[in-house]
Design a protein that fits this description.
2 strands; 9 helices; 6% strand; mainly alpha; 72% helix; 2 domains; 200 residues; Serine Threonine Protein Phosphatase 5, Tetratricopeptide repeat
């Protein structure tokens, strides 16, 4: 039952007062607004729940290499909630695994647009740029990842890879040392390649 409101609105007309009861109209207006707002709130909640569920399903598929199914689920999550930045990041990562780098960059850029402090999305987009041999953009993204989260150890190693590919060995070594200090286990293959390229 809607809450009842004070009885009347009073208008002065000279020495006379005309009393108009607005209670009934107010109750009708409020009842209608409640009637029409409830489904909207419920639909929003359901869509938000659906988006999270599809995102989680997509993540599970991605973990076992079912990238097409993962992309389908992430797309459904985005349809249910177009502002869900993790779904764009995850779909971008699935495209990355499928070597569809342009699509990956598009999705990861959207995740960053929604959440400019999304360190993981910068890191993933940096890797996509490595694959496209766009090293300046990759370094920029890894720099941003580290700026947002100085403890993001993978970003140091990935930046070391970029510097290595760009033959900037001193910078690469500096990032390798930093990654090691933070507990990252540097692959032996990379260390061997680095020693050979840098002359021991």
């Amino acid at each position: 039952m809607p809450a009842r409101f004070p009885v009347t609105t009073i208008y002065s007309l000279g020495e006379k007062r005309l009393q108009i009861c607005v209670l009934h109209r107010l109750e009708i207006v409020i009842a209608c607004s409640i009637l029409f707002s409830c489904p909207t709130i419920q639909q929003t909640q359901l869509k938000s729940r659906d988006a999270e569920e599809f995102n989680n399903q997509g993540f599970a598929h991605c973990q076992i290499g079912r990238y097409d199914q993962a992309i389908s689920d992430f797309s459904k999550a985005i349809e249910a909630n177009p502002q869900l930045a993790p779904a764009y990041n995850n779909r971008g990562t699935a495209y990355l695994y499928k070597a569809q780098y342009n699509q990956a960059i598009t999705d990861l850029s959207k995740a960053i647009e929604i959440n400019p402090r999304f360190a993981q999305a910068y890191k993933n987009r940096g890797w996509a740029y490595i694959k496209k041999r766009q090293y300046d953009q990759a370094i920029s993204d890894f720099n941003k990842t580290i700026e947002i989260d100085p403890g993001f150890v993978e970003a140091y190693f990935y930046r070391a890879i970029v510097y290595f590919l760009a033959e900037e060995y001193h910078k690469s070594l500096s990032d390798v040392i930093k990654a090691r200090q933070l507990g990252y286990k540097i692959p032996l293959k990379f260390l061997d390649d680095f020693r050979k390229a840098a002359g021991g």
